[in-house]
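Before going further, learn to read the protein records used in this course. The integers have meaning only within a learned vocabulary of local backbone shapes. The record below shows the convention in full.
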Amino acid sequence: MADQLSPEKILGLGFGFWNAKTLLSAVELGLFTILAEAPADAETLRSRLGLHPRSALDFFDALVALGLLERDNGLYRNTAEAALFLDRAKPSYVGQILELANARLFASWDRLTEALKTGRPQSENAAEKDFFAALYADPARLRGFLTAMSGISAGPAKAIAEKFPWTKYGSFVDVGSAQGMVPATVARAHPHLIGAGFDLPQVKPIFDDFIAANGLSDRVTFRGGDFFRDALPGADVIVMGHILHDWDLEEKRHLLANAYAALPKGGALIVYEALIDDERRTNAFGLLMSLNMLIETPGGFDYTGADCQGWMREAGFAETRVEHLLGPDSMVIGVK
């Protein structure tokens, strides 16, 4: 049997950072945005990106081999996926979260072993008692972070707008709304809804700009507050996306109890994350995201749909269910 085994998979995983960093550097350089303007030969592309001649050709051809660029008759162009999702000029751009990964997470993950041994966060804000307070105190970093959250929320937001029975409800609030991708997507898809975003007060100008750009200021408003200190705004539906995993178990239970208190009878809570599968075997992204919470936060961790349903029932929710959204993301729905 040993003769039939190959180390290829193991080596591929071990050197996976090569692939990742090649993509992240291409995003950082704006390569895909430049090629969205027009195909280019290697020398033109090298000159526009300001690259040294030594390895520019290897860099471009590595992106061809990785399936991110195409090359025909010496001209490089984006693949269909790269053209849609990695061109900064398009609203479908998801590179914000990749820019965040390149600027922050890549270096922090170099200290994963230390995090596993100590249980302590390893990001540049590891010494801060409140990770989000430090992040939100810097306007430039805050805007970049919120934009990145829009990139990671765009797909789930569209799925939530399509799959949740919004016709039964008239209002909603997105808790930890960031820039406002979920409220904008849901409100645009369902004109009868009145929506709101709830986040720390520093987010308001960024949220208002995003909602105004989507032409929804008449139906979607911002509510400022701290969801650990303030009551949540009342609405028929409360959404918490990529929020619970930031916090330890006691804090998770506190947030679910706050949501239950803010909902009317028959109201619904939607929690969505990259939920770990109940058997903890297949959703590698969800498990790796939980390791990211180890690196980024003092007590955060990801969880299974069954875990979340149990916490919801403890909070008082009478009905709970789990529905897949797309990719690694699923939502847990609780009805009061």
In short: Residues 95-335 form a domain with the Rossmann fold fold (CATH 3.40.50.150). The chain has a mean pLDDT of 93. The beta strands are 40-41, 69-72, 75-78, 171-175, 194-199, 220-224, 237-241, 268-273, 319-326, 329-335. DSSP finds 15 helices and ten strands in the chain.
